[in-house]
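JOB MANIFEST
job_type = single_chain_structure
chain_count = 1
residues = 292
[input]
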Amino acid sequence: MRPVHILLGVFVTLIWGSNFSVIEVGLRALDPFVLTTLRFVFTALPLVFFVRRPREVPLWAMATYGVLFGAGLWGVVNLAMSQGMSPGLSSLVLQFTAFITVILSAVAFREPVKAPQVIGMVLGVGGLIAVIHAAPGTASTVGTVLVLLAALNWSLCNLLVKRFRPPDMLAFVVWTSVFAVPALVVLTLLAKGPAVFESVPASLTWAATGSVLFQAYITTIFGYAVWNHLMKTYPASSVAPLSLLVPVSGMATSWLAFGERFPPTVWLGVLMILAGIAVFVLAPRFRRAAAM
């Protein structure tokens, strides 16, 4: 990967890590399904009236991405956090998507997985397991399973991007959000009934409004436009591991914003995750240097 693209990927992961604390702020005022629905309403509006639908991508593929991304990823994550998953730990468990994406891409697109990447994956998975095991009562079994399901859905979204390579990522993010909204509305009505939408005007505080707008315009439109561009440009094994920085940012933000504390074993796991990322990113450069 070009250095500028590595920096962009790192910057996006830092935004995504802080997003979990932003979600926590929104959940203090809004139902998790309503919060997710509003996020994608504002991701689509008003830009959908100004950007052309990417006709190079089949409509079914955009609809599938929208449903998986809106309801399957963020609807499920918000539900998990409402069930007791902390922002820091949610950001961590979700990063299993890095390894799921690499494995699925190897199967679907025959992308090679080399020895340094396997070592990086082993370090990263070991770090994730250490952190989850040592985290002090901030996760429930249901919450952990839900976030792992969200990680699988995110991996499937990554594969759709790699398969169809949308030329205009901003338009792709905006228009797939159009498909996410109906799925989230139906899911919310089935789970909570219409009363949950009727209570929105009374519960929409300034903090909740800021949470919705940050998630829509910064996290989703900017973050995923950049990420999806990297995902279509480079092999998944080069891009996906960068997302392992998300829990580092997420845990740091959760510590600063909510005073969430972690024992030393957790930070040892974080160091293992960072080491795994370093192997992924730097090993190809060392290999090229040795060949010169």
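[summary]
The CA atoms of residues 12 and 223 lie 5 Å apart.
The longest helix spans residues 206-233.
exit_status = 0
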